[in-house]
Amino acid sequence: MTEPVILGIETSCDDTAAAVVCGDVVRSSVIATQLEVHDRFGGVVPELASRAHLEAMVPTIRRALLDAGLDPERPAIDAVAATYGPGLVGSLLVGLSAAKALAFGLGVPFVGVNHLEAHLFAPTLEGVPEIYPRMVLLVSGGHTELVLVTSRGSYEVLGATIDDAAGEAFDKVARFLGLGYPGGPAVDQLASTGNPTAFAFPRALRDRPFEFSFSGLKTSVLRAVALNPMAATEDLCASFQRAVTDVLVDKTMAAVRATGAASVALAGGVAANGELRSRLAAACADAGVPCALASRAFCTDNAAMVAAAGAHALGTRGPDPLTLGPNPGLSLSPGER
Ligand code: KG4
Ligand code: ZN
Questions:
Q1: 224-238 pLDDT, tens per residue?
Q2: Atom 14, ligand 1: which residue's CA is nearest?
Q3: Statement: residue 91 has pLDDT above 70
Q4: Strand 134-139 to strand 144-151: parallel, antiparallel, or no bridges (unpaired)?
Q5: In what order do the strands lie in the sheet with 154-160?
Q6: pLDDT of 245-256, one tens digit each?
Q7: How much is the pLDDT for 316?
Q8: What's the sign of the alpha-carbon dihedral 30, 99, 41, 213?
Q9: 38 alpha carbon – ligand 1 mean position (Å)
Q10: CATH number of the domain at 5-120+300-316, out of 1.10.1040.10, 3.40.1390.10, 2.60.120.10, 3.30.420.40?
Q11: Residue 328 Cα, ligand 1 centroid: separation in angstroms?
Q12: How far is the centre of ligand 2, averaged over its atoms, from the C-alpha of 269 (Å)?
């Protein structure tokens, strides 16, 4: 049986993305970032994000169809999938409306995708071997969760952050150090030349295996800067990043031991972090557990993961009605719509 060709659309935050996926093969993946729109504000401005999505949506979809070798006027696609939550309501509305209009116009099914579930599908792209049960560390700008995935689309959330998400901590520390938005990539780069033991930042909630806390760590970095105004930014970044990755890697491996998971995967924007990737891969090698690392482009927000999640949803529960609206507060909870 041939796999359906799915057009995925993602507009939950500040990236306008479209992709064409067939089975596990990504035929195209296009991302129009809004970095220059939000940079001077130090974070995403929702109203500006919606307007930028409106401008970028049609050209981005066109590009994705062309890159996939499809005729943008009459694309041979079998369904359109779009993120309907969680995210910024105005941003979600743009992608969702475009997807529904396209599906209606082309007479193909429409399917709404949970953005967090989509992140769980990134490690299924590019032929990365799938071994279940799989422990997925989902680390993004809004979420930090340990998720036990038992098969594609079936999962259980074991625990999450009780305050800031890991990506949020990267962004806040970077903002404080004057490194711009988003902060993760800048901290990642500077940390590579800094001393990770220059500052002894806290590792929180050692005694609560599946829960995380990064708010105290962020405050410690701010305090260290106040006490050491001449401290090298590289050392602050390296010490902060070491504290974050220590906790993320330790808790993921503890969760593997507690559940007997047969493999490990990273998902979400922070999964693009070089130190997290290499340390988790090393810890998995030590434990003899395979580690699936999706390429960086599929870790941060993209539409290929949305198309992959959409294909699964379509095959298991069928299409959604065109009345499906955005759900900004949607969580990672099996069965929630
Ligand atoms: O998944 P994502 O693209 O968007 C959300 O759904 O939140 O994640 C964005 C987050 C931001 O906080 C960003 O700073 C972080 O991922 N990030 C990184 C890196 N690249 C992106 N954090 C650490 N190191 C990176 N290389
Ligand atoms: Zn995301």
A1: 999 999 999 999 999
A2: 184
A3: yes
A4: antiparallel
A5: 154-160, 144-151, 134-139, 263-267, 291-293
A6: 999 999 999 999
A7: 95
A8: negative
A9: 15
A10: 3.30.420.40
A11: 19
A12: 6
